[in-house]
Write a structure and sequence with these properties.
Elements (H helix, E strand, L loop, with lengths): L11 H9 L5 H19 L2 E4 L1 H16 L11 E5 L26 H8 L3 E6 L35 H8 L6 E5 L5 H6 L3 E4 L19 E6 L2 H12 L3 H10 L15 E4 L2 H4 L4 H16 L3 E4 L6 H24 L8 H11 L3 H22 L4 E5 L22 H6 L1 E10 L5 E9 L3 H15 L8
Parallel strand pairs: 2-3, 7-8, 7-9
Antiparallel strand pairs: 1-3, 4-6, 5-6, 5-10, 9-11, 10-11
Helix pairs in contact: 2-3, 4-7, 7-15, 11-12, 11-13
Length: about 475
């Protein structure tokens, strides 16, 4: 007999309603989550820390709240994982670094506080690439999480929010936070078959999240569905819990699936030059999604970027590495500190850049944003694959290459972007489409994603 409380892939929106209707208890869900972590974590290695006792105690307190009709809103009682770049007062935040294994956070940041005040329960901290500087998801000293879509061959989880992607995809976490400087929410989501949202710079505060690049860093949610993402995103925005609950119950706001939403929209798609970067299976699933969008009434037109995506990706990388090095140079300049050599090499690329060249890049970025926006005029959104190929084997990774060809440009231009699972490759690995809109249109991106998700009907899970 089906038991929602023990379903590791249950929707957090469904759990929220079941808590409110007193059909299941948060402590039942938490106990099942902790049992799944105990069973799978030794293989998958997605968590830096698991707060078993405090999480279960918090869930029992939530039981009492629901029994006495003291719900804080639709996120109350929901277990979530926190990327280990997010500060949590009184808890260790390593930022993915061996050198910070004993570093205790002094303050909780705004996003984490909002999730907690909404009644969410932190189940643990998830692994990250050291200081968030890496797109494959590797970490030589702290461990690389195992992508759950292939239990025989270790494949990349995507980075830098590697542990969050693996935890959510494997059902060890119902949802998780990530941070995105060049793709660090969207890449783990894409490689792990999840939904991830990269917000524009001014959308959500970044205080209490380790700074890699003050120019580019953004927080974001990683979930298994757009409805779950809408809930987590709403809480991260700081929206009122009861108001979110009303939207959920009425199927309004971000929680309504409008299949008519694409009618008449002009959507930009890849030109042949950009398509050549992708593998055949990625293009096949991308083109299948485009056919669905066309059938739903979208007007698909080739969008020729005025600045090559690889050029914008490189400029984004240079800004990230320059600012990352200057934020964390005390660790990388000290030869006695044990730092990930792959990350150190990237940081030292930033060390080699001058302050003048950085200032010129920042100025160029402003000009490039205006140029890109002018070319985008007349389009409602852009569509690209999120990744160039499905998750590769860890043994095939070239750390000198970055898989963020289609993700980094939109941090550079400062647009919002939703990563959504599409079809599966011949090897049964996820592919993903990216929906890109102007800054401030995150809600529209989520609504577009909800409609496309419904049309695609993807429901495959890793075989664990």
């Amino acid at each position: 007999m089906y038991n929602l409380a023990e379903d590791p892939y249950a929707s957090i929106v469904e759990l929220s309603k079941a808590f409110r209707d007193k059909k299941i208890l948060p402590s039942q869900v938490m106990a099942a989550q902790l049992a799944r972590i105990e069973a799978l974590e030794p293989k998958l290695g997605s968590f830096q820390a698991v707060y078993s006792e405090t999480a279960l105690n918090a869930a029992k307190a939530a039981d009492d709240d629901f029994a006495n009709d003291r719900s804080r809103g639709p996120f109350h009682g929901i277990p979530f994982a926190l990327k280990d770049l997010y500060e949590l007062e009184g808890h260790i935040t390593t930022c993915g670094s061996y050198e910070m294994l004993e570093r205790v956070s002094q303050k909780t940041g705004t996003v984490t506080r909002r999730l907690l005040e909404g009644g969410g329960i932190v189940i643990g901290k998830t692994k990250s690439v050291e200081f968030g500087l890496g797109a494959w998801g590797t970490n030589l000293h702290m461990g690389t999480p195992w992508n759950p879509w292939d239990l025989e061959n270790q494949r990349v989880p995507g980075g830098s929010s590697s542990g969050s992607g693996v935890a959510v995809a494997s059902g060890m976490a119902m949802c998780a936070t990530g941070s995105d400087t060049g793709g660090s929410v969207r890449l783990p989501a894409a490689y792990c078959g999840l939904v991830g949202l990269k917000v524009s710079k001014k959308c959500i505060p970044t205080d209490g999240i380790m700074t890699l690049s003050k120019t580019l860093d953004t927080p974001g949610p990683i979930t298994r569905s757009t409805a779950d993402l809408a809930l987590m995103f709403s809480i991260m925005l700081g929206l009122d819990g009861p108001h979110i609950g009303t939207d959920i119950s009425h199927g309004s706001g971000l929680f309504g699936v409008e299949m008519e939403i694409f009618k008449g929209l002009k959507l930009g798609v890849l030109d042949d030059e950009e398509r050549a970067f992708c593998t055949a299976d990625v293009l096949e699933s991308f083109d299948s999604a485009l056919k669905i969008l066309s059938a739903l009434g979208a007007d698909l037109k080739v969008f020729k970027s005025p600045i090559a995506y690889d050029e914008m990706a490189d400029l984004n990388g240079a800004i990230t590495m320059y600012e990352g090095y200057h934020n964390h140079r005390a660790y990388y300049d000290d030869p006695n500190k044990i730092m990930d050599p792959n990350v150190k090499k990237r940081m030292f690329t930033g060390r080699a850049l001058s302050a003048q060249s950085h200032a010129e890049r920042i100025e160029k970025r402003q000009g490039d944003q205006a140029v890109f926006q002018a070319a985008f005029s007349g389009f409602d959104a852009l569509l690209t694959p999120t990744i160039l190929q499905p998750a590769i084997k860890l043994s095939d990774v070239d750390e000198d290459k970055n898989p963020g060809h289609f993700t980094r440009p939109f941090n550079y231009i400062d647009m919002c972007a939703l990563s959504l699972p599409t079809a599966y490759s011949a090897e049964g690995l996820p592919t993903s489409i990216q929906i890109v809109l102007p800054a401030g249109q995150e809600g529209f991106a989520v609504k577009m994603g909800s409609a496309l998700e419904a049309a695609l009907g993807i429901s495959v899970r890793p075989k664990l």
